[in-house]
Amino acid sequence: MKVRNVVFSVGQSGYLHRDLMAIKGGARADGFLFHGTPVLPGYRKIVEPGTTISVMLVLEDGQVAFGDCADVILAGAAGRDRVFNAGEHLALLEGDIRRRLTGLDIGEFRKNAETFDRLQVDGRPMHMALRYGITQALLHATALARHETMAEVIAHEYGSTISETPIGILASGHRDDPLQLDRTILKRPELLPHASFTTVEHIGPSGEKLRAFAETVATRLRQIGGDDYRPQIHLDVYGTLGELFANDVDRIAAYLATLVETTKPYGFIIESPIIAKTQVEQIELFRKLRDTLRHQGTPIGVIADEWCNTLEDVKLFTDEKAADYLQIKTPDLGGINNSIEAVLYCKRHGMGAALGGTANETDQSARICTHIGLACRPDFMLSKPGLGVDEALMIQRNEMHRTLALLKAKHKN
Q1: pLDDT by residue (tens digit) across 386-401?
Q2: Mean pLDDT of 289-294
Q3: 169-170 and 380-382: which strand pairing?
Q4: How far is CA 369 from the centre of its chain?
Q5: Cis peptide before 193 (omega within 30 of 0)
Q6: Which of these, 361, 403, 356, 405, lies nearest to 378 by C-alpha position?
Q7: Using 50, 70 and 90 to split pLDDT, how confident is the model at 74?
Q8: Rounded distance between C-alpha atoms, residue 4 and residue 34, angstroms
Q9: What's the confidence (pLDDT) of residue 77?
C-alpha cells in the first residue's frame, strides 16, 4: 500500500506555550497571563496558545491516516527544541516533505519512521514537532494497510508483548481547582494530580504551600476515595525545590521526607525537584538526591524530566541511574519510534518508565500514545491533552479498552 496524496491542516493544541525562563525570571503574573518580555527564542508572548499541524496521508484505497505535529508547554527550556509555531513550517511540509511522502510504501512502520526522524533539512534535523506528527501518521497508515491495531504493528516490529490490561494513568490537573480534584478522585486514576508548581511563590517561602496542598490531596482521598482506592500522589514542582534550597540535596531530601509523612498511606512521587543549568549537573544532583533519600529511608519516587529530552538522553539517565522514573516526554523525542525505543530501553535496564508528553498535544497524539503504552508497557502514562482530566481520561481509557476488546475478539476467531 502506498500514499496517494498528502494533506496538511493547521490546528489548535490542547493547551498553551509558556516561556518558563521569563516566568522564573520575574515576569509579572496577571491571572493566567504574565506581563514582560519573552526570553526564549520563538515566543511572541510569555503565554500564548499552542498550534498544531495535522499530517494526513491519503492511501491508495482511500483510507486516511493522520498524526498531529505538536510540542510541549515549556518549549525551548532545559535543552528543548524552540517553540513550535505552525506557520513557520508549512512551506517545508507542502514542498519537500509532501514529495517524500507521496508514493511512499507504508507496509513497514519502523523503517519509514527512522527515515523521516533522521531527515536533515539545511544540515539540521527537522523540528521535533514535525518528526512527532509525521511518524504518528506513518504508524496509523501502516496499521490501516495491515488491518491491525497500532499496538499490534509496534509489537510485531519491535518484538514486544501487548499488555492484556490498560496501562495506569497519571491524571494531570490544576493545583487550584478543588472541584476538579474531587472529579479526578471519583474517576480513580492510578496516579494524581500532577498540579504544576512552577515558581517558588507557588510552593511558599519554606515549602508550606506545597506541603498544605499535598495534605489536602491525601485528606480528600481519605474522605471520598474509598478504602479500596490507593493511588500514588504525584506532584511536579519544576525545579522549585532546588531554587528554594539552593540545590542543597540534604535539605531537599529532608523536606521531601515531610511530604511523604503528610501523604501517608498513599505512595508519593515527586517530579523535577531540581532543574540544573546543565545536563551534567542535573544528572549528578538527581543521583545524589536519590541516594540520600534511600539512605534516610524515605519511600518516594523521583522522576526526571528536564534535560532528559531525547532517546540518547533517556539512555544516559538510565545508565547513570539518575532517577527512579524517567518522563519520556513524547514530543521532545521527535519521532514516536524514539519513544517506543525509550520505553523498551528503560524496561530492559530496570528504570521506571513514565510515557509522558504534554497537555499541549491533541486527541490524536494521545490515542496513538496509548497504543505505544499497550505495546511497550511503561509503568504509567500521562493524561493528555489538556489539563481538564475528564476529557483526557476519557480519550485514553476508551482507546485502550476499545483496542483490548478488538484484540480479544480477534484471538477468539
Answers
A1: 999 999 999 999 999 9
A2: 97
A3: parallel
A4: 9
A5: yes
A6: 356
A7: confident
A8: 46
A9: 83
Contact by Cβ (8 Å): 252, 241? yes
Residues facing residue 358 across a β-bridge = none
- Grid-cell match 539518575, residue found: 322
Least confidently predicted of 33-42, 112-121, 368-377, 393-402:
33-42
DSSP letters, 375-408, are HH--SEEE--SSS-SHHHHHHHHHHHHHHHHHHH
| pLDDT score recorded for residue 26 | 86
Amino acid at 352: G
CB 364 within 8 A of CB 67: yes
User: pTM for this one?
Assistant: 0.95
| Residues 2 and 104: beta-carbon distance below 8 Å | yes
Asked if residue 84 lies in contact with residue 127, where contact means CB atoms within 8 angstroms, the answer is yes
**Lookup: cell for 288:** 545524589
Catalytic residues: 329
The answer to whether residues 178 and 219 touch, using CB atoms and an 8 Å cutoff, is no
**CA-to-CA distance for 104 and 238, rounded, in angstroms?**
42
Torsion-angle region of 150 (φ positive above 0: left; ψ -120 to 50: alpha; else: beta):
alpha
The strand pairing partners of 382, in sequence order, are 170
Q: With residue 113 as reference, give the H or E element that holds it.
A: helix 109-117
